[in-house]
């Protein structure tokens, strides 16, 4: 079983659909609050986006806005371009971006990303085989990509096992609601309280997202 390879094996730094439930059970055995969440809300789905250019575009669109708003903009972009590629992005005019619902800031970010990929300064195919630290360093060099964007890409596209996106509002709200942390906790407090969940913090994050989505009756469109 894949899970048996993962326990105590730090070289196995990714997870797949086939072992998500087993990894959830592993965390539930560590913390009774996680166990209760799984009892109440069930296992989380295996959210996946292909590790490609359009997924990074989508994650940039999701920065600091609702998922519904980001998806609406993405759909307009998809209708405009059909194929969301760096080359097609580079052909877009300012009016094209405006019609699709891009803010000036996100237009600049997506154009910059397109330029990096089109000119081979960022090789997304190569990222697939690299460790999380190396990937983070490469992506953070690009304007408009911060730690939250990197975390979401590492977790939902590459399925790295120990990603904890501390800047994610839904994750933190869910942890507060589940009484795992306090509203007044600092980032240092939160990291300390999740230390025992290493190296499975991606699984914990997915569980908490699932709890948040279900308890708040949020509609999520994850497939692109």
Task: Please tell me about this protein's structure.
The chain has 224 residues and is mainly α. It folds into two domains: 13-45 and 164-215, Endonuclease Iii, domain 2, CATH 1.10.1670; 53-156, Endonuclease III, domain 1, CATH 1.10.340. Helices cover 58% and strands 0% of the residues. Helix 10 crosses helix 11 and helix 12 crosses helix 14 (201-215). The longest helix has 15 residues, at 67-81. The chain is globular and about 55 Å long. The two termini are 31 Å apart.
Write the SSE topology.
Layout lengths: L1 H5 L13 H11 L1 H10 L11 H9 L5 H15 L4 H5 L3 H7 L3 H15 L5 H4 L4 H9 L6 H10 L12 H9 L9 H7 L7 H15 L9
Helix pairs in contact: 2-3, 3-14, 4-5, 4-8, 5-7, 10-11, 12-14
Structure keywords:
224 residues; 2 domains; 0% strand; globular; mainly alpha; Endonuclease III, domain 1; disordered N terminus; Endonuclease Iii, domain 2
């Amino acid at each position: 079983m894949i899970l048996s390879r993962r326990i105590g094996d730090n070289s196995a730094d990714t997870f797949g659909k086939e072992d998500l439930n087993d990894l959830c059970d592993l965390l539930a055995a560590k913390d009774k609050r996680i166990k209760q969440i799984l009892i109440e809300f069930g296992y989380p789905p295996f959210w996946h986006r292909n590790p490609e250019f359009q997924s990074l575009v989508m994650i940039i669109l999701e920065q600091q806005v609702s998922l519904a708003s980001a998806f609406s903009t993405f759909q307009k972009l998809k209708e405009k371009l059909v194929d969301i590629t760096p080359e097609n992005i580079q052909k877009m005019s300012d009016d094209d971006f405006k019609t699709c619902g891009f803010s000036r800031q996100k237009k600049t970010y997506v154009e910059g990303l397109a330029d990096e990929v089109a000119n081979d300064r960022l090789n997304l195919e190569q990222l697939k085989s690299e460790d999380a630290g190396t990937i983070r360093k490469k992506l953070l060099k690009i304007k408009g990509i911060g730690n939250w964007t990197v975390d979401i890409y590492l977790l939902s596209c590459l399925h790295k096992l120990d990603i904890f996106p501390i800047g994610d509002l839904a994750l933190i709200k869910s942890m507060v609601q589940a009484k795992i942390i306090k509203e007044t906790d600092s980032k240092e407090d939160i990291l300390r309280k999740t230390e025992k969940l290493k190296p499975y913090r991606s699984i914990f994050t997915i569980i908490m997202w699932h709890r948040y989505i279900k308890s708040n009756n949020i509609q999520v469109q994850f497939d692109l």
